[in-house]
Amino acid sequence: MNTFNEQVRDIAHLGHVELLTPKPNESAAFFTNILGMQEVAREGQSVFLRGFGNYESYCMKLTESKEPGIGHTAIRTTSPQALERRAAAIDKSGYGIGWSEGDFGHGKSYQFRDPDGHAMELYFETEKYKAPEHLRPILKNQPQKYTGNGVGVRQLDHINYLAQKVEPTSKFLQDHLGMKVSEQIVLDSGEHAGSWLYSGQKSYELVYTVDSTNSRGRLHHLAFLVDTREEILRAADIYIDNDIYIEGGPAKHAIQQTFFLYCYEPGGNRIEVCTGGYFIYAPDAETITWSQAERARGQAWLTPTISTFHTYGTPVVDK
Amino acid sequence: MNTFNEQVRDIAHLGHVELLTPKPNESAAFFTNILGMQEVAREGQSVFLRGFGNYESYCMKLTESKEPGIGHTAIRTTSPQALERRAAAIDKSGYGIGWSEGDFGHGKSYQFRDPDGHAMELYFETEKYKAPEHLRPILKNQPQKYTGNGVGVRQLDHINYLAQKVEPTSKFLQDHLGMKVSEQIVLDSGEHAGSWLYSGQKSYELVYTVDSTNSRGRLHHLAFLVDTREEILRAADIYIDNDIYIEGGPAKHAIQQTFFLYCYEPGGNRIEVCTGGYFIYAPDAETITWSQAERARGQAWLTPTISTFHTYGTPVVDK
Amino acid sequence: MNTFNEQVRDIAHLGHVELLTPKPNESAAFFTNILGMQEVAREGQSVFLRGFGNYESYCMKLTESKEPGIGHTAIRTTSPQALERRAAAIDKSGYGIGWSEGDFGHGKSYQFRDPDGHAMELYFETEKYKAPEHLRPILKNQPQKYTGNGVGVRQLDHINYLAQKVEPTSKFLQDHLGMKVSEQIVLDSGEHAGSWLYSGQKSYELVYTVDSTNSRGRLHHLAFLVDTREEILRAADIYIDNDIYIEGGPAKHAIQQTFFLYCYEPGGNRIEVCTGGYFIYAPDAETITWSQAERARGQAWLTPTISTFHTYGTPVVDK
Amino acid sequence: MNTFNEQVRDIAHLGHVELLTPKPNESAAFFTNILGMQEVAREGQSVFLRGFGNYESYCMKLTESKEPGIGHTAIRTTSPQALERRAAAIDKSGYGIGWSEGDFGHGKSYQFRDPDGHAMELYFETEKYKAPEHLRPILKNQPQKYTGNGVGVRQLDHINYLAQKVEPTSKFLQDHLGMKVSEQIVLDSGEHAGSWLYSGQKSYELVYTVDSTNSRGRLHHLAFLVDTREEILRAADIYIDNDIYIEGGPAKHAIQQTFFLYCYEPGGNRIEVCTGGYFIYAPDAETITWSQAERARGQAWLTPTISTFHTYGTPVVDK
């Protein structure tokens, strides 16, 4: 027992994600009118958006781009010291890019790329959201009014990257950010096909699944949280009556047990709304490994999965 | 068994209600922005509104008035012949007013007042709703797109009148419209304190409860249907963040078992959103009678009821 | 308008169904432990079962048999006179069998077969359920305690037959029972592939869909009602942890908009639990017709359907 | 920013609670048949019980006693080192009792009392649950089958103590266990009336509210988690049909925003089932303070609270 390896938790949570879209107006309309997010600011080719429950000023930077996909992922550390520690560790790894002065809503950040090429940054200083008069909530333990418009997502939940090689990419985040793996898929060949990473009690925030096109740096999907499964079912109704293509769900994942609904936003990126799953309270939780056969069993309720779920990502590549 | 009394059902359903408001703009904003209804037309001092599931063109006529309360209630018959039969029956009763040429969205109607003074009309000819392009639904078995805006009520559900004398008023509808009583409250004194009337499988559409101020012709509340209890819970969140006063609920009624939420719309009328309850399939269902003691037990889950629920109605009177 | 055809409603509702099973013990355990139904009585090779909301004493007679499938369907009329009228009409049609003395829980019945060969009976006299002490409910407008055991189905909802020829079979019920068609599928060839029949405000109780094996008299599925979509999602969890095979759902049908979950009970019959959909209030509702192309679009949310859903029925036949 | 105080998190989570009951058989029947927990073991006068989601072998020890109330609370540390650190800190405080050899299902523990007299212990070594054959789940990321019996609670959620003095008692846990306060009530007099303590991302696990009888060491309630609000509504139905007294809810707390339902178990202890609320992702979250006036506003939806909620606790005392 005395050999238990104590570790300070340096990563607080997934902060925000920059999503790229070739159709900025249509994409912004999707996130505000259909998902019910609030526009916080506009700068250059970007719109900053938030869910009603985000304690920071925003959780998504939507940026016009020739191709859809992921711009960068910003991760908040637990302290200024943690930021310095992790920047030093990544710098040593050779994957570091360097410090930035920060961006709208947050202070200086240390920028790097994961081994698969996804742009990332770490930051600690952040601007906590102060709701303007018309969005001030009645309950003071909620950052913003619940507007009742569209799906009404609470906050950014997780990001699922595609990676050419899952294992070394996941290992990089474990080694240099101190993240842990809650669940993973290991094929009969020994290759890792999926890795779900977490740092606190939320059971995953960053996910890598294998890119069947052998590409690098792509996005599988970005996910937003709602509180109830009924909101997911309601979202499906909202989607069909607004010509939003539903790729999968509502259904329940076997891995992580999340209740999900996948669609494509107008820019082409796959967007999930999700709820449920579980939290990890054990400080010594073991990684759960799904074999190829177990994975082949499908979703929790055996819901058939459309083939594009295993092939489509952004940017789109010729396979 | 051979004495079973066969009866043709002449009343199809509650069609629409005219609600009076001294604050027409604020009330209209409540019904469209908060409840998520659609404005169909405006005529004179009236706005016509609908829920996404109404097969007729509207279910509420909102009319400016010095005082809040109920204008008239329109009830659709099962056939033109039924309309003639019922008009003749009411005419004989002495409570009839006479035929009108109809109103926006429906044909000729026979007007009358119930013994407590509430204005009513019967009609058969009606305009079925044809959604304009932007409200056209994907599913052809639904009259209109689900917009995802605010509470999102499906349709008018029922109306609850206050009456000085419940029993004779309810009896009038039984005798002259052929309605049946699914549940009722009978006090120890023998006085009827509540009567829930129905004509088809829906277990109530018109309700009389006793007016504690001894007034006549008043409204207790108007109720709109949603499909799920989760939508009722969500409505409560929408209400508090939009300064809509919640008078009671979300909770479950003992009588009829409906899951409910009561608020006051800006004009002062009590509005319910409801779901659940049960349908009556037995053609020979017996009236369920609640005694004074049973009624005093409270709502299904013993939820305390605020005293105004038993005293407040519109128009407001000095008690 | 004066040509509107008034019609007395003679059919009250689907009463009960006799389900055949080659595994009587396992099937009974499924209906009581997993679906949460109550056993009311046993007679010969049959067990009589009920949901907590059935006003009659039972809604399913489970009978041991060499093959799974449907025994007979019992339909309650709105009056003794209606029973006589409909018996006479069917007798004239040549599909009649004759009167029976009744069975456990109901009085005399008129027996017949639909043109596809499914055994049916009409009855009016019935035994209303009186809960024994341990099942007595707190709310007097509910026939039985809600036990909280398993899925907890409220009552029988509908039966979906397979038929070699959908149109004439459906037409028979329209002509001789006075039932109406709420929705139907008509293929490009003009052949009817599905017909949803109703008699009151509930939008369907008897359904015919085309038998792809060209067989006659088979069952597609039997459906039980729950009150909420959450209960359907919970049922899926209960199913997987009890090795009950899920064939489809939870998802939302396009036709009728019902939220559904299909499984196979241990005897091999397909069983649905369902909720939602809509009620028909218009006395002059028109039949909604889905074309082949519209049908091919799939379920409401585009959920893929497993192929067995279109081929499997009971008894199983070699195709 | 450099002054940010980094702190190692030593407390992992609330482990289990010993509940005292003068009616051991009736209480055990409540927790197993109504709440749907599993009995894991019996020892002496105690029964050990678990929810389907507990990763440890149990979350409640139910012990026969002359009076209802709380036996002890067991809290798991994040590591063996953390256990030693916290034991040393408490030992120095003068509130320590000393080490025990452990109990069923966990290793050695350090025992102490909070300043209000509630017995507590810290432990690290624990027995992770291995489901027996009949309770083995299909999904390997779940410790146990979901049985579908009764309410079906997932796990212990939190404990709410009554304390004569809230502030110093809460301060003790902050200073010696490193816990943080997410929300609190501070009266106009400056007295603290409630303090919600947390250690990870779950926003509260240990709560102190003021004891209006000026007693010490009492219990306000013990709470169990379910996943959805629909399960809470369903629980209310199960309670009424099983003669379980509902004291409050289903409704939504303003503080913590939890959706709740309170009852009294047969032994007299107040038991909550809860869901919802929010998680704290900010490492620098500030305590939210509710004033006397804000608190007086009531629950989130203004649901009236029965007076016993503010006075009743276990053991019962003469006020």
Automatic annotation (TrEMBL), chains A, B, C, D:
Alphabetical list of InterPro entries matching this protein: Glyas_Bleomycin-R_OHBP_Dase, Glyas_Fos-R_dOase_dom, GlyoxalaseI/FosfomycinResist, VOC_core
Keywords from the UniProt entry: Dioxygenase, Oxidoreductase
Residues of the VOC domain: 13-125, 155-276
Pfam family, one: Glyoxalase
MF (Gene Ontology): dioxygenase activity
Transmembrane segments: none
Protein name: Catechol 2,3-dioxygenase
Highest classification ranks of the organism: Bacteria, Bacillati, Bacillota, Bacilli, Bacillales
